[in-house]
Recover the amino acids of this structure.
């Protein structure tokens, strides 16, 4: 499976979690890892180049730290510039139909905070609903997100285990779809 991992981290040089995950992804056969803030530090996304990369992928992975229950700004800019009408959606926009879309996110707080009875009252998957709606629009299969919660306090052993699990996830050719009400 041809997997493209798009890493969106505005301070990757200071990242511990996303660096470990990206390093793990680099070792997966068939995976290409792209660092979008390095490619587009001025937010001037080359839509044609990105569309070419996506067209060649079977699985598209958006990897990013969760900021304010969402994504870093470049993710939105990239979506606006790349996922265009007539290419990614609309009556003739079928370029991504049938591909998988996986989110690899790292919220800062511990997993227990992302529960209906937790501090934030929402599951991580609920906070990612706009991405699931986008997946529906562009015809990709939205698979269960890879969540590394507690990124502000995760220990080295647990991080190594999560990186290994991420590599296994990326290598898995049969990822489960996320249900509409999970």
């Amino acid at each position: 499976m041809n997997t493209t991992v798009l890493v969106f981290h505005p301070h990757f040089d200071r990242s511990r979690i996303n660096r470990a995950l990206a390093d793990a992804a680099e070792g997966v056969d068939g995976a290409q890892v792209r660092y979008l803030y390095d490619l587009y530090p001025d937010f001037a996304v080359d839509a044609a180049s990105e569309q070419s990369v996506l067209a060649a992928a079977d699985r598209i992975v958006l990897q990013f730290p969760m900021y304010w229950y969402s994504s870093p700004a470049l993710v939105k800019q990239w979506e606006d510039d790349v996922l265009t009408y007539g290419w990614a959606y609309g009556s003739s926009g079928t370029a991504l139909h049938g591909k998988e879309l996986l989110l690899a996110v790292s919220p800062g707080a511990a997993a227990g905070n992302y529960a209906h009875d937790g501090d934030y009252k929402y599951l991580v998957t609920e906070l990612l609903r706009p991405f699931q709606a986008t997946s529906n629009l562009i015809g990709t299969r939205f698979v269960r997100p890879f969540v590394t919660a507690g990124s502000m306090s995760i220990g080295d052993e647990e991080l190594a285990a999560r990186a290994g699990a991420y590599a296994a996830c990326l290598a898995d050719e049969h990822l489960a779809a996320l249900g509409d009400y999970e």
Notes: Helices lie at 17-26, 36-39, 47-56, 73-82, 124-127, 129-138, 156-171.
